[in-house]
Specification:
The chain is an alpha+beta fold and about 300 residues long. The protein has 3 helices and 12 strands. It binds copper (II) ion. Copper (II) ion binds next to loops.
Length: about 300
């Protein structure tokens, strides 16, 4: 039998472990490399406030990694081979918890940049994107939920070896029928994270990069989108996907290149306020709950 004091202590430990983790949201919890799942948080930059809430301002500096600070020494760098698969685990509050709340639907993306840049400047290239499958009526986030939070990404085979940040991202569109701006609770909800990788291989490619923040505008069609009014098509936001083998080789070091960002780049980066969605209390919260219930009744997804 557990003594009362022990029970209270156990309860406190559980409460501390999940402090700030609001049900529904998500963060990068672990990575699997070469089929081996690493410990939670290994090679992942710490989350901003031990709080899994989304980034709401696409021009806020926290769009980079949703981290407390951009300290590269905050975690290790893990080896990965160019061309191989890395699997991201998304959870609400740690392994064993849900990936994200049902109804948080939207695209999945991933970007990379050389670690030496610490993510600054036009250095991010997109290596993965998955939006909406109209034939199956499935969002990428729904696939991630069905896969218990696991999401596969392939590291481009031809990129120059060296240390990189990998920035996987889920975007939820459940409040995106209204544009982020005056209303700081409106708009797409961004769930980025940053993994530190040492890419091994023999590639020479240095793909063209873009700035984060700067890749998304609140009015982009893939970010100002009504999830609830029926849809057949979806435009995945951000720059075009980098396909291995499509970049000219570059003899320079795997750092930044001098290419300026695309015309999505936006000079509004001096907005340092980064309101975060403390909960899912926006206008669509009720509607979303209704849809989740309907989904459960229809048993469309085992979530
Ligand atoms: Cu949420």
């Amino acid at each position: 039998m557990i003594k009362k004091a022990t029970r209270i202590m156990l309860a406190m430990v559980v409460a501390a472990a999940t402090a700030g983790m609001v049900e529904g949201h998500t963060f990068v919890t672990s990575v699997t490399i070469d089929g081996k799942e690493l410990a939670e948080n290994k090679c992942i930059r710490p989350l901003w406030k031990e709080d899994n809430s989304p980034q709401l301002d696409p021009n806020g500096k926290d769009m980079l990694c949703r981290t407390k600070n951009m300290d590269p020494s905050a975690t290790e760098v893990c080896d990965v081979t160019a061309g191989s698969k890395i699997t991201i685990l998304w959870t609400e509050s740690g392994k064993g918890s849900r990936a994200i709340a049902p109804g948080h639907n939207g695209p999945c993306l991933a970007y990379m940049s050389p670690i030496a840049t610490n993510g600054e400047g036009p250095v991010w290239f997109k290596i993965f994107e998955d939006g909406y499958d109209a034939a199956k009526d499935k969002w990428c986030t729904e696939k991630v939920m069905a896969a218990k939070g696991y999401m596969d990404i392939t590291i481009p085979a031809d990129i120059k070896p060296g240390q990189y940040l990998l920035r996987p991202e889920l975007i939820s569109l459940h409040e995106a029928d209204r544009v982020f701006g005056k209303d700081k609770t409106a708009g797409a909800q961004y769930y980025p994270g940053c993994v530190q990788l040492n890419v091994k291989g023999t590639g020479t490619a240095v793909p063209q990069g873009w700035s984060i923040p700067g890749i998304y505008k609140p009015t982009d069609p893939g970010l100002h989108f009504n999830l609830w009014d029926g849809h057949k098509t979806y435009d995945i936001p951000g720059p075009k996907l980098y396909v291995s083998g499509s970049a000219p080789s570059n003899p320079g070091p795997a750092t930044t290149n001098s290419t300026t960002g695309n015309n999505n780049n936006n000079n509004n980066n001096n907005n340092t306020s980064s309101p975060s969605g403390k909960n899912c209390s926006g206008k669509n919260a009720k509607r979303r709950r209704r849809i989740i219930i309907n989904n459960n009744n229809n048993k469309r997804d085992e979530m």
